[in-house]
Amino acid sequence: MSDKAPAQVAVPEKTKPTPARETRGLGSGTLLGWLFLLPAIVMLAVLVAYPIVWSLIRSLFGADGWSDFVGIDNYKELFTDDNTFTALKNNLIWVLVVPAAVTALGLVFAVLTERVRFATAFKLIVFMPMAVSMLAAGITFRLVYDRDPDQGVANAVMTSVHDVFSEGAPYPGARPRNDAVLTPQGGGFLTRAGTAADGTALLPLVALPANKIPGDARNARPGVPAAGGLGGVVWIDFSKGNAGKPGVVDPGEKGLPGVKVEAVRGGHTVASTTTGKDGSFTLPASAAEGGPVQLRLAASNFAKSFAGYDWLGPNLITAAIIGAYIWMWAGFAMVLIAAGLAAIPRDALEAARVDGATEWQVFRRVTIPLLAPVLVVVMVTLVINVLKIFDLVYIISLGSSQKEANVLALQMYIASFGGGNNQGLGSAIGILLFLLVLPAMLFNIRRFRRENR
């Protein structure tokens, strides 16, 4: 047996490939990337950068925007003008209310879609308003907010709910035939002359639609008072074909049941009663003690029934437009938040439930913190959007209430093209609007960079 060690076989080292010489030209990544970005850069320069710079320059000039240099006078006028101040106030209301309301509603809808059986149909219904243009939505909501309950859906709902709990006045809008017998007083009507004991008062009314006369009303007949008392009748003084004689109870004319009649002396009510089905009433002898009394038909008989709210009036116009906007954008928030919910690890939720957390605790301490990035995206997007809201406000607030609903974007249009014809002031408002949107844009950019790291 040989004591020699086996010969070592030299294995040649694997040679590394020689790197190709870097080439700079059309095929290099940097130059090719810039070439792809060039169209977008040109578009941004033409559509964004140039208008911003030109608006800044024009804001320093007068009404025509280029011939009369005024410096910062337009900005001084901007902060002293009442219309612009109203626009700023309304924009502040929009920023404080709308993003939070839309995000909260979208969160509720997103959570509900995980628990209802017909989630897809529910999402479709909620998201459908996003497919409607602002113009179409504005026209639709002008009809929804119509003052007449027979046309406006909002007031139709309000009046229906109100009528469930309150019957209202029995004869709204009724009035005397003339002022010779009855005169208006505090929403009701008071006789001009006094009625003495054993007297009979004829109190005719008109302007009452046939559908407001109760079905059980009988032909009018004056009440016969007891000795020393008072009597009378309240009736609708109108016959078909206007054949009757005014102020006289003609055959076929209906009495008005349920009318409250008060005997008044010296401004104080001394007795009261209610008319029967034939409109007749009687008052006791005690009412006539001390001399003639005036008869008053109480205001509660004639108060106009609740007809809803003036949604497009100066007091509610901003709230009404915000309601329309929330209706449109709740679906947008729901879709984004639902996507965030789908990405949440189910293990974290189940672990919290296993540890004994209630559903509310799971939602508040697990779901909401994990959804925070998505909620921030929705909030910031809505802040930017509501700062430049224009078309919905312009369409819904057409008319006398537009001043109360004014926002900066609308004021910029009015100042420049809608009658103001002041290009300098309009440009200054545009720059102010840009400065207000800029912080939200920078916040978004920083957040995107942080997430990419």
UniProtKB/TrEMBL annotation:
Domain ABC transmembrane type-1 span(s) in chain numbering: 88-444
Matches recorded under SUPFAM superfamilies? Cna protein B-type domain, MetI-like
Query: Which InterPro entries does UniProt cross-reference here?
Result: MetI-like (IPR000515), MetI-like_sf (IPR035906), UgpAE/MalFG_permease (IPR050809)
Which PROSITE patterns does the protein's record reference?
ABC_TM1
**Where does the source fall among the domains of life?**
Bacteria
List the Pfam families: BPD_transp_1 (PF00528)
Q: Keyword Transport on this protein?
A: yes
Which keywords belong to this entry?
Cell membrane, Membrane, Transmembrane, Transmembrane helix, Transport
- In residue numbers, the region (Disordered) covers 1-22
Instruction: List, in alphabetical order, the GO biological process terms annotated in this UniProt record.
Output: transmembrane transport
Q: Record keywords: Transmembrane helix included?
A: yes
Membrane-topology descriptor: Multi-pass membrane protein
Signal peptide location: none
Q: Where is the composition biased (Basic and acidic residues)?
A: 13-22
Q: What is stated as this protein's family in its record?
A: Belongs to the binding-protein-dependent transport system permease family.
Protein name (record): ABC transporter permease
Q: What is the lineage of its organism?
A: Bacteria, Bacillati, Actinomycetota, Actinomycetes, Kitasatosporales
